Amino acid sequence: MRIAVTGSIATDHLMTFPGKFTDQLVPDQLDRVSLSFLVDELEVRRGGIAANICYGMGSLGHRPILVGAVGDDFADYRSWLERHGVDTASVHVSELRHTARFLCTTDEDHNQIASFYAGAMSEARDIELRPVADRVGGLDLVMISPNDPEAMIRHTEECRERGYAFAADISQQLARMDGADIRTLVEGASYLFTNEYEKGLCEQKTGWSDAEILDRVQIRITTLGAKGVVITRKGQPEIHVPAAPVEKAVEPTGVGDAFRAGFLSAVAWGLSLERAAQVGNLLAAHCLESPGPQEYRLTGSTFLERFTDAYGQAAADEVAPHLP
Predict the structure, then answer these.
(1) Active-site annotation, residues
(2) pTM of structure
(3) Between these two residues, 266 and 116, which has the higher pLDDT value?
(4) 105-142 burial, b if ≥16 CB within 10 A, otherwise e?
């Protein structure tokens, strides 16, 4: 499958707070919060949701097509992604703005407080998908992940107009976008990705119930953290896939992106939805065990060994022929 992944490309500034955010909140003064956290560590990492997804897919042997906007400071990052199997030829380089920045502080319970500076990402709205499709010989699926909101809407509408199947991953932009825009992004999606909280927020903002959303998308994937993943389809039994065991949690940034990378990789291999969620869960575990969203390393043998331990030999036999 030729999969294009649209979305943010950023540099992550990841900090660690050696306490709990909740201990610093005064319940009757939440309307005027003023807090500063002295952090112990600062890690500067490659990130951005689309880039993270592409890195994960490249690590599993695919050649995903990254579509987004960056600044002229992207050269080293481009080289890194290309070396890990990502097609970056459709990335737009701004002449005016820097690559986006993500600043995130994580507490000891893995709760996070973050800010995002868009920078060059605001120019993603100027990217058209048709030239991308022409360059690679067509697109089988377009992943619409968090990006400049106008870019997300433009790419979704272009997918409908040109008949490209698309996956909707609104996630971090749910807080920013209104109900009408979210309905535009959801309507007609082949896949809709959210976590458990985002699922409720999506329903609240669109005004659609779970059943009404299932009328509008083919497959709904809801990640539940340590409880795994639920996959729902209209008129079909719900599929629950338990999470993969985690050896030692280090940093949660990018875990959802890694899940999407694994899920889409397995879909591209032609595997079942259950296997796709299992591959996504294990890739997410690798990411959680690493100090950044693109710091995990994969080998086919180690991945298969852990996959077998988590999901059994029969499941592993289906995945094994596809691993690099």
Answers:
(1) 257
(2) 0.90
(3) 266
(4) bbbeeeebeeebebbbbbbbbebebeebbeebeebebb
